[in-house]
Amino acid sequence: SLSSPQIQFADQKQEFNKRPSKIGRRSLSRSISQSSTDSYSSAASYTDSSDDETSPRDKQQKNSKGNGDFCIKNIKQADFGRREIEIAEQEMPALMALRKRAQGEKPLAGAKVVGCTHITAQTAVLMETLSALGAQCRWAACNIYSTQNEVAAALAEGGFSVFAWKGESEDDFWWCIDRCVNVEGWQPNMILDDGGDLTHWIYKKYPNMFKKIKGIVEESVTGVHRLYQLSKAGKLCVPAMNVNDSVTKQKFDNLYCCRESILDGLKRTTDVMFGGKQVVVCGYGEVGKGCCAALKAMGSIVYVTEIDPICALQACMDGFRLVKLNEVIRQVDIVITCTGNKNVVVREHLDRMKNGCIVCNMGHSNTEIDVASLRTPELTWERVRSQVDHIIWPDAKRIVLLAEGRLLNLSCSTVPTFVLSITATTQALALIELYNAPEGRYKQDVYLLPKKMDEYVASLHLPTFDAHLTELTDEQAKYLGLNKNGPFKPNYYR
Amino acid sequence: SLSSPQIQFADQKQEFNKRPSKIGRRSLSRSISQSSTDSYSSAASYTDSSDDETSPRDKQQKNSKGNGDFCIKNIKQADFGRREIEIAEQEMPALMALRKRAQGEKPLAGAKVVGCTHITAQTAVLMETLSALGAQCRWAACNIYSTQNEVAAALAEGGFSVFAWKGESEDDFWWCIDRCVNVEGWQPNMILDDGGDLTHWIYKKYPNMFKKIKGIVEESVTGVHRLYQLSKAGKLCVPAMNVNDSVTKQKFDNLYCCRESILDGLKRTTDVMFGGKQVVVCGYGEVGKGCCAALKAMGSIVYVTEIDPICALQACMDGFRLVKLNEVIRQVDIVITCTGNKNVVVREHLDRMKNGCIVCNMGHSNTEIDVASLRTPELTWERVRSQVDHIIWPDAKRIVLLAEGRLLNLSCSTVPTFVLSITATTQALALIELYNAPEGRYKQDVYLLPKKMDEYVASLHLPTFDAHLTELTDEQAKYLGLNKNGPFKPNYYR
Amino acid sequence: SLSSPQIQFADQKQEFNKRPSKIGRRSLSRSISQSSTDSYSSAASYTDSSDDETSPRDKQQKNSKGNGDFCIKNIKQADFGRREIEIAEQEMPALMALRKRAQGEKPLAGAKVVGCTHITAQTAVLMETLSALGAQCRWAACNIYSTQNEVAAALAEGGFSVFAWKGESEDDFWWCIDRCVNVEGWQPNMILDDGGDLTHWIYKKYPNMFKKIKGIVEESVTGVHRLYQLSKAGKLCVPAMNVNDSVTKQKFDNLYCCRESILDGLKRTTDVMFGGKQVVVCGYGEVGKGCCAALKAMGSIVYVTEIDPICALQACMDGFRLVKLNEVIRQVDIVITCTGNKNVVVREHLDRMKNGCIVCNMGHSNTEIDVASLRTPELTWERVRSQVDHIIWPDAKRIVLLAEGRLLNLSCSTVPTFVLSITATTQALALIELYNAPEGRYKQDVYLLPKKMDEYVASLHLPTFDAHLTELTDEQAKYLGLNKNGPFKPNYYR
Amino acid sequence: SLSSPQIQFADQKQEFNKRPSKIGRRSLSRSISQSSTDSYSSAASYTDSSDDETSPRDKQQKNSKGNGDFCIKNIKQADFGRREIEIAEQEMPALMALRKRAQGEKPLAGAKVVGCTHITAQTAVLMETLSALGAQCRWAACNIYSTQNEVAAALAEGGFSVFAWKGESEDDFWWCIDRCVNVEGWQPNMILDDGGDLTHWIYKKYPNMFKKIKGIVEESVTGVHRLYQLSKAGKLCVPAMNVNDSVTKQKFDNLYCCRESILDGLKRTTDVMFGGKQVVVCGYGEVGKGCCAALKAMGSIVYVTEIDPICALQACMDGFRLVKLNEVIRQVDIVITCTGNKNVVVREHLDRMKNGCIVCNMGHSNTEIDVASLRTPELTWERVRSQVDHIIWPDAKRIVLLAEGRLLNLSCSTVPTFVLSITATTQALALIELYNAPEGRYKQDVYLLPKKMDEYVASLHLPTFDAHLTELTDEQAKYLGLNKNGPFKPNYYR
Fold it and tell me: Which residue ranges does the record assign to the S-adenosyl-L-homocysteine hydrolase NAD binding domain (chains A, B, C, D) (predicted)?
C-alpha cells in the first residue's frame, strides 16, 4: 500500500500551498521573529564576525570528545549555547519535572527518535529530556532560518547528532533531514515532526522504515492536515498523535498568548498609544477574543466583525459593537485581522482608511490582508523600520502596514517560553504514550492526546504559579462519577 | 418494546433524587425566585385579596367565548396577564421574528403539541408563537409554585387549554398533566417537556400514544439525563432533542448570566460592598468564570479552588490565585460555590470562617454547602431577611448563609428575559425541526440541535444589539470549505 | 453682627431652592430609599400593625429607667432597634476603634452636642461613640421620612434625648429641633448638622447661643454652601468644619460607591441585562467615572458626554467614545445623567429615544432630567413597580423612567454601611478637633478637616481589609521631607 | 538683587544632586531611551558610516541659503530629518491647529525665544510653530545624548540657529548654550527651559539680560524646584510658568502613559508572560495606579505597598491586597517601585527574592532600588541584553535587574508622541500667555498655567479621538455659575 506515496503526497503538498495554514506558516514566522529580536536583544551577543563563509557541509567538525556525527555552523559556540539552554531550563519547569519523575523508569529506553523541529534553546531542553528518559535522538531543522547556531553547537558538544544551521539552502534542508534518517546501523522507531517534511521524506525515500516505526508525533496544523489526508486515503501506516489540537496548547497559543502579543507587537513596531484609539478586530474566535480583551483593557474602543452568529453574540455580550468592516473603516486607527480567512481586508478598504491607520494580521498566513493589491504603481512603499512599511497614496495618505501582512505576533514579538514549554511537554508525553501503548490501543489513524495526559501537562505547569490543586474526596468522586485522578472533563471540553 | 417502561423509569427517577441535577432544581428555584420577587416588584400588582379559597378543580370556568376547556385560578385576571405578555413580547424579539418569518408557511400546521413547562409570560409568548406557526397546544405546569395565574388566565381567554395554577398540590400536578393528554378526539404528536414529568406520565399511562408522537423536546438537565438513560436502555421510542446543551443556551445561562446575577444576588440580600472584599470561588467552570470576572471588576480580591488542572491553569492565567479552600477560609469575606459537586463547604470550613462571612451557592442544588451540618443545637439560626440567615456560634460569630445554600442567582435575583428568550427560541426551532424532519433523519435517540439551527437562534438575537453580521463571499466560503449560510463551526465548538 | 440673621438667611435659602445641591437632596432621597428598601428587605420585620395613629407629640412616654426627655414613635421597639445597632457596629469598626482608643482620655468630656441628622442605626453608633468619648447629646432628625423608629426607641431607652419619628409633619420637624436646643439648664456648645436646618434655627431663634458654641460640623453640600455664604457675608460667628469635601468621603461617596450602586439600582428596578447594552453616561466626573467603569466591566458599550475638555480627554483615554447626546440618543438602551447640571435630558431627547429606553439620574436632585416636560396630556404614565414608571407615547413607545428622575442610587439601592462609616468617623473627628483646638487655631470661617485627620480616618478603615500599611524609615522621611506620621500629601491632593 | 546669583544657585544645584527629581532625571533617561530605540527601530536608517570624527565646533557649515549661524553634526542629513519632522507633525495635531488658529494674529510677533530642550522631531514641530506665530528662536540641547542629528540639520537648513549634536562633551554643552544667548545684536526676551541649565547660565553669566526677559517657561521638576527656591529666596526676577504641574500633563505623563509603558518596558526587556505572574507594586500614586491597572488587566496578581492610608484605601477598593514588602517578597515574580522614595527595595529584600525575580523602577531616579548594595564581590553581574542584568547569587539564584534601577519606561520603552504633543502645546501656550499678559498680571513668582489654558490644551487634543464636546446652554451656564467657555473646574481639580 506504500507503492507510490510520493506522487500522492506531492499533490497534497500542492493543495496545501493554496491554503497555507496558520501554524504551518507560524513556524516560518517564528524563526524570522527570533532572528530579528536576536539582533535587538543582544547587541553584545554571540555573532561572530570572523565567521567564515564556508558551508557547514564542507567543514570537518568534531566535538571535544572526538565525536563528529553532526553538522552545524561552529562547534566553538557551544558554551554560549549551553548558557541559553540553562536559562530556558529555568522557564520550562514541567519538562524538568518530567525528567525527575520519569527518569528512574526510563520510559523511552530503546526509543530511537528522529526529529525535525525548530532548533532553539527550548527544543534543546526537550531533546535532553527525551535523552534523560532513555531515548536516542537525531535531529534536523524544520525551517531554514530558525536554527540558533549556538544551541545547535551545544547539542553537538553534548553528543547529539544535529544537522542544522541558520540560513540553509533548500538543498541543505533536505540533505540534513536525510542525514538524520539515512544512517548505517541505526533506524528510527519514533518520529517527532513539525510541518510534516520529515514524515514526507521517509514516505518518499524510505517507506520500509515505517515497519519499525511505532508512531508519529506532529505539532503543526499543516502536518496534521497531511496526516488526516493520508489517513482518509488509507495510506497512513502508523498511529499518529495530533499535538496541535490539545486543549491546553490551543488555549495558551491563542487566547492567552495573543492577549499579550497584540500589545507587544503593536508597541514594538509603532509605539502607538492604545488609550482612546479606535480599533476594529476582524474575527472573534480565540485569537480575536484575546486581542479585544487586551485592547479594551488598555483603553481602546474596539469594534468586531464576525460571520458566525454565535461568536457575534459573544462579542456583543462582551461589550463590543458588532459591525461590518465598511461601517467603521473610515474612522478606525487600527485594523487587526484574526479570521483565518482570506481577503478580509481588500484594496477597497485600504483606499478608504484614514491617514496613519495601522493594518496588521494576527490570524494566519498573509492571506487575510490583500497585500498584493497594494503593489500598484500609484502607491509608494516606504520601509520605515524593520517590519514596518508606510504605503503612501497619491494624496499623501499613509497606511502603516506591519510585517507585510504576515503574522504580527510572530514577526514582531516573541513567543513566551511558557507557551513553548506547554507544547514541548505535550510532545514528550505524546512520544511516551505512543511508544509504550500496548498493541492495539492505537491503530493506523490520527489521535488526540488522551484527555488525561492533557490534564497532566497542565498540572505540570501549575507549580510555576504556586497554584494548589484541590483533590476530590472518595465520596465526591463517586458522586460525580469521576476517577479521582481525572480525566475531569469530556474530551471535547474547551 | 414499551412493555414495562414504568418500572424502569421509576428506578431512574429514584436514582435522580440522589443526585439532583442543576437545571432540574433550577426549575424549582426559578419559580420560588419569581414568586418572591413578585412580592417585591409589584406592591401595586394583581393579587386579588377577595380570591376565594375554592380549588380551581371545583370551579366552573368559561372564557368570554364560552370555551371551558382549561383549568386555572381566575379567568378575570386575563387582562392583567395580557399586559404582562405584551411586555414580554418586547423583550423576546427572536420569537416575534420567528412568527413573522415562518407564519406564511405554517411549519407546525397539523402539529399537536402537549407541553409541560413553567407557565409565565415568556412561555405564553412561546405558546402563542407555536400557535401562530400552526400548532395546537395543550399545556400544564412543570412546577407547582411557578405559575403566573394572570398569564394562565390570559392564555385561557385566548383559547389555549391550560391546566395550571400557583400552589397546586402534588395530586393537582398530575391531574393537570393528565388533563392535557387524556382528551377525547385529540392526541398529541409532539412533546415539549421541562423536567421529564410529562414524558414520564405518558410512558407510564399511555405508552401507545408514542406511536403517533414525532418527537420530544426536553430542556432540563434532569429530563435530558432521563432520556439518555432510556436511550441507553433501548427504551426510547421516539427521537428526542436535547435543548439544554445547545451552545448558545449554555454560554448565556452560565457565563454571561452568572456574571451579572452573582452581583445582583449578593447585593439584594446583603447590600455588601464588593470593593476590597476577599472572595473565594470554588470551581472555575463557566459559572465560576462569570462570578470571578464580575467580582474582580468590582474590586474584590478573588481566590479560586479547582480540581481540574486545565481549568486551574486558566484561573491562573486570568489572574486568580489558585488555592485550597483551607488556605484562605479564615480570611475571606465571601465564599461562593460553583462546582456541581457536593460537600465542597463543610462544617469544618464553616467553623473556621471569620465573623460576618457570607456563604452562598451558584452551582447546583443545595449539596455544595453542607447546610445540614449547621442544624446542631449549639448554633442559633436567625432569619434576618427573606433568603438570609445568620448562623450564630456560641462565641457570637455570625455566618451569613444565603438561600439556605440553594442557588443564589435563582433564589435571590431574576433570570433575564433575554436568556429565557434564547431558550424559548431554541425550543420552538427544535419542535419545527423534529416535526418536519424527513423520515430517517432522526432515530430513536437523543440529539443536539443541529449546529446550524443553534447559529440561527443566535442570529435572531443579534438585532437586539443592533449587531451587523458579515457575510462570506463565495470565494471566501470556498477557501474555508464552508457553506455561506453556515454552520460555521464544528458541532463540539464552545 | 447677629442682629438680623433670619432675613439674610431666608434669602440664602431661597437662592438655594433655585439650585438644589446634590447632597442636600441626597439626604431626602436616602431616607426615601431606606424606607422603601425596608419594606423590601424585611417582610418579617418590625412593623407593628397595632401601632396607633396618635401623634408622638401627644403621647406620654418613659423609658425603663423612668426618663421621659425624648419624643419618639414607640419605646417598645427598643429591643429590635438595639439589634439593628449591634449589627451596624460590626460594620463600623473605625468608630468602635475610636471608642477604644479615645475612651480613656474622654476628648469630648464637657461637650454638649446638639445634632440634626438622619436617625438610623449608623447614626446611633456615632451618637453612642460621642457619648463614650464624654459628650452629652440631644438629637433631631434632618428629614421627615428617614427616621428608623426602632433605632430612635433604642436610643431613648439608652438615655439619649431623641426627638424624631418617621413621617413627621413640617411643623413636627421644627418642633423636634426646637426641643433639642430649647432646654432649661442645658446649652449646646457643639453643633453637628446635616443640611443646615438646625444651624438655621439657632441663627433665627437663639442667636445668643452662638456665644457658647465652639463650632459647627456640617456634612451636606447644601449646609456647607450656606456656611460659605454666611462666611462671605461676614455673618458666620463660629468656626465650621466642612466634612463633605474631605477626600476620603468624596472618593468613597462618588467613585467607589457609584461603581456599585449604578448596577444595583438598575437591576433592582428593571432586571435589565447589562451585557451588550448601549449606554450613554452624561458627565465624566467621579460619579460618571464610577458608572462607566462598572458598566464597561459588565459588557455594556458606553458613550460619554462632557463639557469639560479635561474630563473629556480622560474619557477618551479610558476607552469611551465622547459624543454629544443627540448623536446617540436614538440608539442607546440606557441614559444615565451624572452632571450636577440641569436639563441635560430634555423632552426633545426623550421624544427621540427608542422603545424601552431606560432613563435615570445619578447626579443630583431631579433637575438633570426634565421630568416636568413629560407631564403632558398625550403621554401616559404607568407605574409598573415601585420607583419605575413607563411613559407611553401615542405610538405605543415606552420610556422607562426610574425614581421619577431623582437620584437612582439613593432611591433604588442602599448606601453601603462602609461609606456611612467613613462619614460618621469624619464627623466624630471633626467634633473632637473643633472642641479641643487651642484658641485661635480656627477663626470664624469654614474649614476642611486637616489632611492628617483625613488620613487618620482612612487608616482606621484599613483593618477591615486586613491591609498593612508600610511605615517610612527615619531616613526615608527625611529624604522626602515628610513627618513619619503624615500628612503624606498636600491638602489639595485628590 | 542679582549681585551674586551664581553662588547661591550653585548651592541649590548641589542640594539637588542629593535628591534628583523624577522628571529631571527623566530628561536624561529619555534621551538614552531614544538613542537606544533608534538603533532598534531603524536598521535602514540614517547613520552615515562615512561620518568623520571632527567635532562640529571645528567645522565650517552653511545651509543651502548660505546661513551659517548654527552648529550641528552634518547639514547633509537635513532631508532625512525633514521627513522625521513631517511624520511627527501628523501626530501633533494640536500644535498644527495652533499654527492655523493663531497664525493670522502672530501672537508671538517680536518674541525672541531662547530654548534649551531635547532636540527631537517633536521639538522641531514646536519650534516651527513658535516661528509661525511670529517668534525668533535660538536653541540648544538640554542633554548631551538626546539630540537627533538629522532633525538638528533640518532645523538649521530651515534657518533656525541650532547648537546641538549627539554626544556633546560637558564643555560642548555649555558652549552651545552660550552660543544661543551670547549674540551680538540679539537679546532674548523669553526663555523656554527644560532642566534649568539655560536659566542657570543666564543668571550666572548675563544677569542683566533678565531686564528684557518677560518670562521663563520651565518643564522639568528639577527646573521648577529651582525656580521655587529662587522665588522663596526673593531672587526670581521674572515671572515663571510651571508647565510640569499642569493637570493634563500630569495625568497623561503618569497614569495613562505608565499604564502602557510598564507592559512595554517589561516585554521588550524580558519577554515575560504577564498572565498568572505575582507582582508587587510599591506605591499607589498615579504611576502605581497605572501599573497596577495594566498588570491586573493582563492577568497578573498584584500586591501593593503604601505609606499613605488614603492611597492605601484606594488600592483596597481597586482590588489589590495591601501588604508590606516583606510579606510577599519571597513569592513574587516581579517587583516594581513607583514611590518617589529611596531605598524602597534594599539588599535584604533582594536576598530573599526567588530565582528569576524581575526588579525594576517606574518611580524616579535610581534611588528606589538600592542597586549599589548589589555591587559586592559575592554577587556576579551578567549583562544579558541591553538594559538587562542578571545578578547571580552564590547559590546560583538570579535576579533580573532592569535598566540598573533607572526609570524603566524611559530606558526601555518609548514616550508616546501624544504625550509629547500635550507637553509641547502647553509650552507654546505658556509662552504666548507670558508674552502677551498685561503688565501686572504676573509678578516675580512661579505660576501654574491658568486652568482655562489647561482646558484649551486638552480641547486641542480631542479631535485626535474624534471626540465631540458638549456646550453649555446659557441657562445651564447660569445655573452652574460658570462661563460657557470655561474654566469648568477649580484650579486644584485633578
Answer: 254-415
